[in-house]
Structures are given as structure tokens and as C-alpha cells.
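Exercise 3.2. Students should predict the tertiary structure of the chain below and write it as C-alpha cells, then compare their answer with the key that follows.

Predict this chain's 3D structure.
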Amino acid sequence: MLSIALAPNIAVGSLEAGGRSSWLHGSSAVTLHPSSVLHGVQALAKARPLLLFQSLNKTTSLYMRDVSSISPAAALLFGGEVEVHHAQGAASLGCGARLGVDAQTALLLRVLRLALARELDERMATPSAPVRPELLRAVRSVLLD
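Answer key:
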């Protein structure tokens, strides 16, 4: 659920030579704050390519604070507007985060996202109506895989 509230605060990681991780937030290079428990973890960007952060602080670098890793599926399902780039085999979020995911997967997640939004709207209008179990199973499956 953090990805809903903090969708604009997503950094995308890449692995540099020597196993060092680098991070981009939009077009800005950002760094994990030295006090972060994730700071210094080798090859973090390979294992966890997306980080969600609470705030950015600029001192000697632009530091991410209060960081959590999120899965690409959670970002696509809950993290802001999604644009699918079929030819490049990628999808991007409204915050500028570009994810390497095949177009078919991104489209399926977008359909699931729309179904989830409709379900939430229906629950707001009629709180006592039953929740569709197949939708919950689909979301659970996506987030646990």
C-alpha cells in the first residue's frame, strides 16, 4: 500500500561494474543515505530494482531517506499512471520510473488494476456487497510471484 501513497517517490536501480548499485529518480541520480539499513548492500539494484522513499535530502549528494524495496508488479499494480512501450518491451510509471517488463505482462497488470479500481468503487458505493474472490486471488498471485 505504500506504493499508492508514495508513487512519485520511486527510484530505479541499475548495477554498475564491480557490483555497485546506482539509482535514478526521474532523471536525477540519487543515493541511499548512509544511515539506511540498505546502504552498502552489494548488488542491491539487481535483487531489488525499485526503491520507494519517503524523502530526499540534499547535502553532499541527493540522499533517499526512509527507503523500502518494492516489486515491479506492485509498482505497476498500485504505483501511479502506467504507460506501456510495446516496441521497447518496457513500461513506465507517471513518476518517470521505466521498468523492463514485456508488454503483455504490463497490459495484464493494467487490466487487473482497472478491475481492482472498479471493485474498490463498488465497495465504496455498497460496503456490504461481497468482494469477488477471483479478483483477490489474482492480485495475491501477482504480488506473491
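Discussion points: The chain has two domains: 2-71, 75-144. The longest strand covers residues 50-58.
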